[in-house]
Design brief:
By secondary structure, the protein is of the alpha/beta class. The protein folds into two domains: 197 residues, 3-Layer(aba) Sandwich (Rossmann fold); 244 residues, 3-Layer(aba) Sandwich (Rossmann fold). It has 17 helices and 14 strands. Strands 3-2-1-4-5-6 form a six-stranded parallel β-sheet, with helices on both faces. Strand 10, helix 14 and strand 11 form a beta-alpha-beta unit. Helix 9 packs across helix 11.
């Protein structure tokens, strides 16, 4: 099957590479000349484990190509996927749909055969209706069906998620579109991935509801972590105790500095705006957004507290800057708010991340970026672990302690056992753990 994908960002590029690996002929289209030229050279615009190899293999096989020409991309295409960005609109939190509608208008001017137009971008309820209106207004004679097919990809594990999904949600009631979508995803039948057909509006809402629920789980366990610190509980044990309940589940119950990234922040805001417009307020989601925003700044205060009575002029090494491991995505990363809080308190910040430092530089102009964790810790008064990269999970704690001026290790991901940290001569500060007395304070 021949597929055109408009947009070579995170969703478009991963989807195109995976569809081509299924055996489909895929053309990815983007207006950015430099991005297409880089892709033709085998250079990826994002960091996603295994994506470069997947792209190279399918380009070599002739199943995947890139172009800036939409007419060339759409030629003979049986399905046209819209996978452009839908960032939060400046000022009001609504999803900015200008790129989606712009793509729809361009598609409408080129329709010369029956086609299925699939919205892969994350869009609010009713967007598919407007896309269909645009297409039918511009090309009233065209045989076209508009489908919602939301993505459920985790950054850092996107290829695995695409090829072994929990479910595939397809929003359409058009018989031809249903058959086309079945054929596109037929290679996944062997994995017994549920193919869930719904109305278009239901599919659009499913994506937002899923992300809002996961954001709620994260925020819930973060608030429980604060309570654990106040009353002497251990949040990891609490999380395990509730996560073993099959009705709750263990995923997304890891206390930390708050959620970030390209999805949860903007999708929760967009869902709230949809609910507001529909006069069906979502009070729980409102609280989730407020608590998460406050938490990121609170993590900066937690690091400041570990510095003692006079933080001004002291040095903190932040290890891990991306919002999660295995990505270079800095969008709404907790590290941004932590850096701001530290700098407002007069603290000098050093930073290290295996992949995201180039993306972080314009967001943190006063941070000194280092080549590794030990260089960042050299002469520092405190080290704060912000992102749980694999190469930050097994640091030589004694070497770390020897390189530091102070002794505070603020573990915002609860990576290390407190006993091991203290044996290395450091003072441990975790999330959702009662603060243990330092070695000098013990009887």
């Amino acid at each position: 099957m021949r597929i055109a994908i408009i947009g070579t960002g995170y969703v478009g590029l991963v989807s195109g590479a995976c569809f081509s690996d299924f055996g489909h002929e895929v053309v990815c289209v983007d207006k950015d000349d430099s991005k297409i030229a880089a892709l033709d050279r085998g250079e990826m615009p994002i960091f996603e484990p295994g994506l470069d190899r997947l792209v190279a293999r399918n380009v070599a096989a002739g199943r995947l190509s890139f172009t800036t020409s939409l007419p060339a991309g759409m030629k003979d295409a049986e399905a046209i996927f819209i996978a452009v960005g839908t960032p939060s609109r400046r000022g009001d939190g609504h999803a900015d749909l200008s790129y989606v509608y712009g793509a729809a208008r361009e598609i409408a001017g080129l329709l010369d055969r029956p086609a299925v137009v699939v919205t892969k971008s994350t869009v609010p309820v009713g967007t598919g209706d407007e896309v269909e209106r645009i297409l039918r207004e511009a090309a009233p004679e065209a045989e076209v069906a508009v489908v919602s097919n939301p993505e459920f990809l985790r950054e850092g594990a996107a290829i695995e998620d695409f090829k072994r999904p929990d479910r595939i949600v397809v929003g359409t009631e058009d018989p031809h579109a249903i058959e086309v979508m079945r054929e596109i995803y037929r290679p996944l039948y062997l994995n017994k991935a549920p193919l869930l057909f719904t109305s278009r509006r239901t599919a659009e809402l499913t994506k937002y509801a899923a992300n809002a629920f996961l954001a709620t789980k994260i925020t819930f366990i973060n608030e429980i972590a604060d309570l654990c610190e106040a009353v002497g509980g251990e949040v990891q044990d609490v999380a395990r105790g509730i996560g073993l309940d099959g009705r709750i589940g263990a995923k997304f119950l890891h206390a930390g500095p708050g959620y970030g990234g390209s999805c949860f922040p903007k999708d929760t805001l967009a869902l709230l705006k949809t609910a507001e417009d529909a006069q069906a307020p979502l009070r729980i989601v409102e609280a989730v957004v407020q608590v998460n925003d406050a938490r990121k700044r609170a993590m900066g205060r937690k690091v400041i507290k570990a510095l003692g009575d006079e933080p001004r002029g002291k040095i903190v090494a932040l290890l891990g800057l991306a919002f999660k491991p295995n990505t270079d995505d800095m969008r709404d990363a907790p590290s941004i708010s932590i850096v701001q809080a530290l700098e407002d308190a007069g603290v000098k910040v050093r930073g290290y991340d295996p992949e995201s430092m180039e993306q972080a530089r314009p967001l943190m102009p006063d941070v000194e970026f280092c080549r590794g964790p030990y260089e960042a810790a050299q002469g520092a008064d405190a080290v704060a672990l912000v992102t749980e990269w694999d190469d930050l999970r097994a640091l030589d704690l004694e070497r770390l302690a020897a390189s530091m001026r102070g002794s505070a290790l603020v573990d915002l991901r609860n990576i290390y056992p407190p006993e091991e940290v203290e044996q290395a001569g450091l003072t441990y500060y975790g999330i959702g753990r009662a603060q243990r007395p330092s070695q000098g304070d013990r009887p």
